[in-house]
Amino acid sequence: MTGADNQQERLDGYIAGFVDGEGSFSVVVNRNPTCKTGYQLVPEFHVSQNGDRAQVLRLIQSRFGGCGYIKPNGRKDRALVFVVRRREDLLNRVIPFFERQPLLSSKKIGSPPESSETVRRTSA
Hints:
Strand content: 25-35%
Strand order of the largest sheet: 1-2-4-3
Distance between the termini: 39 Å
Structural class: alpha+beta
Radius of gyration: 15 Å
């Protein structure tokens, strides 16, 4: 293993640990009159962090190939949140990362491969 490989492995471990504490996978239910049922299921990955440490969210976004976006978590909250909702990014960038770097806490329930199957089943 080269020094660069070892550095990337440490970074990936850091990101996985950070997400284990500050992130989640979820499915949001949105009203959408154009859908047959009137609702749309939107799979989502997000990680939040105090706005003073936005560089951590930018680092995670960069590691996932620049996908997703960073936005304020709320009007009164100083926290920021990194969000990935695009189905292709979840399937091709986020979920494969966590297949290689599994979460260790109880959050691992519903983690890949279950999360990848949930994302595949939601409409595009």
